[in-house]
Amino acid sequence: MKILRMIDALQRLGLDHHFEGEIEAVLNRQYDSAMTKYSSTIVVDDDSTASHDLVETSLRFRLLRQQGCRAPSDVFQNFINKDGKLQSKSEQDIMGLIELYEASYWATKEETTLVEAGELCAHLLDSARSSSTFADYTVRHPSHRSLPKCHIRNYLSNFHGGSTTKHYYEDTLADLARLEFNMNQSVCLQEVVHVSKWWKELGLAEELEFARNEPMKWCMWPLTTLIDSKFSEERVELAKPISFVYLVDDIFDVYGSLDELTLFTEIVDRWDVASADQLPDYMRKCFMALHHVTNEIGYKVYKRHGCNQIHSLRQAWAKLFKAFLVEAKWFKGGKSPSAEAYLKNGIVSSGVQVVLVHLFFLLGQGLTQRNEDLVNGDDPPVISSVAKILRLWDDLSSTDEEQDGEDGSYVNFYLMENPQCSIDEAKVHVMDMIEETWKQLNHEFLSITPFPLVFNRAAHNSAKMVPLMYGCGVDVDQTRRLPKLEDHIKSMLFESIPM
């Protein structure tokens, strides 16, 4: 149990990357034991055996799944009676309820018992939330839906949680976490400065005054997606295609005429630099800048990893432009697509695919022909699930981005097809869709996948980032407004943690 607690603390404090090999070895032993003995006893350490303890069982289950191991959810049958309710002893175990609640967010679509157990835990923890800040914070911010960087401060102030036992390593880890957070903060600030300088020198902000000019916001995606500071250079590079996703979105949504947008898409689809002069001046400058950045990233991928992926990067951009054009034809033409058609196209127009394709090649792991074919073809579920979560969250958002363009919303199209529904009912329906998509993402993470663990984790982190980016939303238990993105930027970049 002690080693599991330590691993959990390392991960929550963002220190786990220092001990990747050791953590993997421990969890592999735990997984081997779980697969052979989970119905009765499970080996915890070399010289001890676990009882059917809810805290320990739930924590082990969650840590194994976070490692990509498909730990069996049958272990929780020991705590559930014939009526599908938690045993009375378990209902009184606050820390056990908290850990089971945390574990339930790793459920896949078919694991309904685990989902229901999590819902029951949330209900039972309601009474404890007023007296336990740890219980309240956990219910609102389960670890599987939260980014460690955004919650390190709170975890440090609630290091013991509801436990009265202090472990020998806690003070050391807390000091190390504070030191690393403050050191990484300076690295992150340097990255923001670097990207801001690049964006200013690019000159598109002055050229396209109607477009969003938010380099700090664009940097937040890679900063929270790739947590380890060893990926600093990759984070800087990833911010560049992210900026172009926002820029091109504004061109299609706000400024371009349908004829201009059609020509723009055709030229990008052919990647026809020679025809760029046919475009309006602002589009030509945008395309030439995109051409330069794509070639630059492609060259860096080739130099580091020995493979030329410029064609794949261009193909990803062409796919995004085509999706933007479909929406432009709908909305500028006054047409209303079906909710299903809108969502299918909106998954592509979210921009997630083009960003994660760049991320995959920048990381340089798992660069097999099979994987290249997967990212170049129809989006694999690990990508499309993240894109769907973003699209639905974005459409739930009521944040005014101060744009004059027309835009669609899945909520609106769903209401058109279901006039008997209220807007609140439609939003509940969308939240249910988001939950189902998370289960699909869990399934992909736990399945045998050709993609490396570092990429799958980055994709998961991207999904976790979505509600923070669209801070108009509510947290997972639907009771409180999420902090605005600006609050997270301030906390992550400008407020050090006192030693």
UniProtKB/TrEMBL annotation:
Annotated ranges, domain Terpene synthase metal-binding: 200-440
Coiled-coil stretches noted in the UniProt entry, renumbered to this chain: none
Gene Ontology annotations of biological process type: hydrocarbon metabolic process; terpenoid biosynthetic process
Magnesium recorded as keyword: yes
Record keywords, A-Z: Lyase, Magnesium, Metal-binding
InterPro entries in alphabetical order: Isoprenoid_synthase_dom_sf, Terpene_cyclase-like_1_C, Terpene_synth_N, Terpene_synth_N_sf, Terpene_synthase-like, Terpene_synthase_metal-bd, Terpenoid_cyclase/PrenylTrfase
MF annotations from Gene Ontology: magnesium ion binding; terpene synthase activity
Terpene synthase N-terminal domain: residues covered: 3-131
Name listed for the protein in its UniProt record: Uncharacterized protein
